[in-house]
């Protein structure tokens, strides 16, 4: 039996290897929604419109739009999203780019159960009709120590959506009861049936000297999970630690040479 979809059916192509972008092909009157600031380029006949709320095309009252926009603010996103519509008579394209090195992950939301839960800044773009909301962590431990806090993003619909993450992405299919322990910052997304919690690392040496934090994220199947090799917070920490310090000094890159290394390479 044929099921009528609520979202527009869009074609796409992911371009690049480590600094990826996604090309969306729009038929006449098709629309894709995206986070503000993610646009790379678009054809002349593609029209851009700022929309208030979560980007879904269903009829909503003004208060409903205010509520959905408010939920987006809780995840650190803007009150507004941007809709790109093909106003021409032929196929046209619009391109979106990830904000830092990594991968763009295409997600067929309908095939994945109609709902994906992801880290707060993961969403890039989606077919119009997709709803971008928030997902509260029901367990206090996961909310306090899970790296993403009590609030994560929720993507719902029956079309294509695209999220981005840092480094290389590993997709795992977990069987019922199968558990995967993950650094909390490396969790990108998981399907709605995955049970997410945190677990104490344990052991004094592991806690003090392990360098992996006090807690693991635990993901229990059944369902799919997506894991990133380079969380943005880890990348930012490395950049900050290597940045020039007060007075123009930078962190010594050789633990043995230290300041002598700076002298040799001309920094002093």
List the keywords.
single chain, 268 residues, alpha+beta, Double-stranded beta-helix, six-stranded antiparallel beta sheet, 16% helix
How would you summarize this macromolecular structure in one to three sentences?
The chain has 268 residues and is an alpha+beta fold. It contains 5 helices and 19 strands.
Mean pLDDT: 78
As a percent range, the share of helical residues equals 10-25%
Total beta strand runs = 19
Instruction: Give the strand order, joined by hyphens, for the main sheet.
Output: 5-6-3-10-13-8
Which CATH-level-2 architecture?
4-Layer Sandwich
CATH superfamily, by name, is Mitochondrial biogenesis AIM24
Q: Report the top-level CATH class.
A: Alpha Beta
Shape: globular
Tally of discrete structural domains: 1
Major sheet details: 6 strands, antiparallel
Oligomer: single chain
Order of helices and strands: EEEEEHEEEEEEHEEEEEEHEEHH
Instruction: Provide the structure class.
Output: alpha+beta
Count of DSSP helices? 5
Q: Could you list the spans in which at least 5 consecutive residues all have pLDDT below 50?
A: 61-67, 252-257, 263-268
Span from first to last CA? 74 Å
Q: Which strand-content bin applies to the residues?
A: 35-45%
Description of the structure:
The protein is of the alpha+beta class and 268 residues long. It has one domain (11-235): Double-stranded beta-helix, CATH 3.60.160. 16% of the residues lie in helices and 40% in strands. It has helices at residues 62-74, 140-145, 204-209, 232-242, 259-264, and strands at residues 11-15, 21-26, 31-34, 39-42, 46-52, 80-86, 92-97, 102-108, 115-118, 123-127, 131-136, 151-156, 160-166, 169-174, 179-183, 187-191, 195-200, 215-220, 223-228. The strands form four sheets. Strands 5-6-3-10-13-8 form a six-stranded antiparallel beta sheet. Strands 11-12-9-16-19-14 form a six-stranded antiparallel beta sheet. Strands 1-2-7-4 form a four-stranded antiparallel beta sheet, with no helix packed on it. The longest helix has 13 residues, at 62-74. The protein is globular and about 60 Å long. The termini are far apart. Residues 61-67, 252-257 and 263-268 have low confidence and may be disordered.
